[in-house]
Amino acid sequence: xxxxxxxxxxxxxxxxxxxxxxxxxxxxxxxxxxxxxxxxxxxxxxxxxxxxxxxxxxxxxxxxxxxxxxxxxxxxxxxxxxxxxxxxxxxxxxxxxxxxxxxxxxxxxxxxxxxxxxxxxxxxxxxxxxxxxxxxxxxxxxxxxxxxxxxxxxxxxxxxxxxxxxxxxxxxxxxxxxxxxxxxxxxxxxxxxxxxxxxxxxxxxxxxxxxxxxxxxxxxxxxxxxxxxxxxxxxxxxxxxxxxxxxxxxxxxxxxxxxxxxxxxxxxxxxxxxxxxxxxxxxxxxxxxxxxxxxxxxxxxxxxxxxxxxxxxxxxxxxxxxxxxxxxxxxxxxxxxxxxxxxxxxxxxxxxxxxxxxxxxxxxxxxxxxxxxxxxxxxxxxxxxxxxxxxxxxxxxxxxxxxxxxxxxxxxxxxxxxxxxxxxxxxxxxxxxxxxxxxxxxxxxxxxxxxxxxxxxxxxxxxxxxxxxxxxxxxxxxxxxxxxxxxxxxxxxxxxxxxxxxxxxxxxxxxxxxxxxxxxxxxxxxxxxxxxxxxxxxxxxxxxxxxxxxxxxxxxxxxxxxxxxxxxxxxxxxxxxxxxxxxxxxxxxxxxxxxxxxxxxxxxxxxxxxxxxxxxxxxxxxxxxxxxxxxxxxxxxxxxxxxxxxxxxxxxxxxxxxxxxxxxxxxxxxxxxxxxxxxxxxxxxxxxxxxxxxxxxxxxxxxxxxxxxxxxxxxxxxxxxxxxxxxxxxxxxxxxxxxxxxxxxxxxxxxxxxxxxxxxxxxxxxxxxxxxxxxxxxxxxxxxxxxxxxxxxxxxxxxxxxxxxxxx
Amino acid sequence: xxxxxxxxxxxxxxxxxxxxxxxxxxxxxxxxxxxxxxxxxxxxxxxxxxxxxxxxxxxxxxxxxxxxxxxxxxxxxxxxxxxxxxxxxxxxxxxxxxxxxxxxxxxxxxxxxxxxxxxxxxxxxxxxxxx
Lengths: 808, 131
Description:
A: two-stranded antiparallel sheet, B: mainly alpha
């Protein structure tokens, strides 16, 4: 398995090499990995179906226990065959689809490198999807799950100059990506509760509990988003912005089945848990009806089919999600039938689009006579979609209806049956409308609509072009005709999901049972509905769906809300930021103080009279700074207060600190005076942003918090200081007697290195700023600052300092 | 630690706070200097009780050598910060004749902008305009 995945990766890389001129011929390269996979799967199919799954592990990050775990059982084999088989056909089909055209350009006419990009992304997707259906480990599953989302995003938005394509790609990615996050959360919870990180291990020994229920709802959310289930279904029709081969492959046959694959694996074990079945029936049923109803109103054949896909996926979701053996079996059968007929129909529409230049149902006419072979293909696949005998779609749906007649799960069973039958009526109706619109009508309904095409001007497609949809339609028909052996084979497949499903069967003639009666009723009612819809057809485009509008409003609101939040939190005002920071400081310090180790007793008022004197000088000079109106005064007061502090340090038994404080303070005053000689002497009026009351109030609060915190902190020591050890080792190990000095240069030498680095960086900054300022002053001449031209005010000559003049 | 030192640390912190909330850069630098002094005092006084300077050979109860070592580093780094900010003030003055800290223009513009300006015009693009 792993070499085949690597082969996909290799082919994708080859196609995506920049500057390739091969154009659509890259699809020949892209077809190799899926074809090879398909052949390999056929050779191993026998053993897998006999009940010995193939297992492969690839260690990724052993330190974190991350391993890529793959396991192919019967169901994995079926999905692998569908992914690789349809993938091969789509690649072959694309060779014709992207062929430049005679007199009118095809819809998807693009530059060679763009076509090659498409081929590369498509084969990359094929690899990701193959990995997804074969993965067993949770994180393997998630990885490939997201990979398919990403490749889908890139493929939907392949026409990156079209705003609609970009918006659709973003929508699809946000919805499936958010679903992927929900899935990840669910898988993590399941892994926590079960102690295993593989699907097979989880199913073999299922955990239970409230957390597991939450996890399963999260997993279902992810599956619904991926498989376009109501209310997360709205991204799928938008995904039709991608070229038709992409739509056929990703958005009908394979990727949208990912959620169903996951649900099918978990449902037999977890369907009884909490709201699982209710969610499946409600969301699947809503998708079934909403998609079917919408498909009746679309004028673009591809969009009608896309809504039909939402509907069909709802049906499959109900069947596999209920989790009983019979419904699981029927779900697998319908899934297979759907992949075949829906891919065939999409590819058929692609041919029509390519040859007639449109797929607007109002414009197409006369194609049934002009393209009889293609019409036969479309009708066969359509018959399978509408569940008309003798097709695979019919036998599969019959088994589904029969399975729902007696589920043994209470009222949800009959409810699901009613939903499925109503959905079938809709399915018959939109099939008749769409396929009939493509091939059947001679005169389009509505006279005031877009101009109809001229059937005689429609090209006849080449044999190779029609081969892929024809083969898929033929399989749909053969699957119905050979219902018994196909059914037996599918039973072996479904048996890997739940053993009892291996007893399922398909039959072309079920006898005069309720299921056949319901199917017949669906045909009749569906035909009648199609006729009603045809008569009331107004030929206009339906408005965007409610879900799309709700999504747009939500997205819009999110942007607006975040903008408002940014405007509030990021005001751009330094005093405002500082107010927030200092208020936080007060709260944090106050909390630490109040939650301190208890009452602070035996604290002396002062340690000596000299200390009180020094403190009064230091604090008094500092307080005077608040009132200072002149820069010069303020700087001198800072210096004086610093000298007082040096005395406090000295009295506290830290002579090194005292001398440092004294020296640095002196240096600071010199620096201040140097700068202030240039600046105006007086401060401007106090700023208005922070009112004085608030400013001083906050200042007092900070002061009280700091004072209280320092008392609490000094009483909070619970462990002896490392300083005792420093004192012991200072002389024997570092050969110094002054322990503070030894600490700085030896024990904590790296701190000092960092300090020197900071000083160095600051010095470089100072030199550059001063040099630039001087240069500017010289240029401005004697006019002085503030009167210079303002237009080049932002220029910073941050070059290397030129001479000693820059030294501070 | 004595109440005197705690009160002194609080007073210095309060003065520093009152100064940094101004818009004049020189005042902010002065305030940072005072705030630094307050924190240095706090670390030293709360970290070790008063005692003899920890120099081997002296008699008496040694203070803890770690807080002075930390504070010593902090004093020097604080000086580097002050020097840099003063250079910024000087440069600011040579450009526009003041050392006021203005509001960030980009931030103000963002706050006052009409939210619709930056909305994605494609957002409401109808899904049916697919190619």
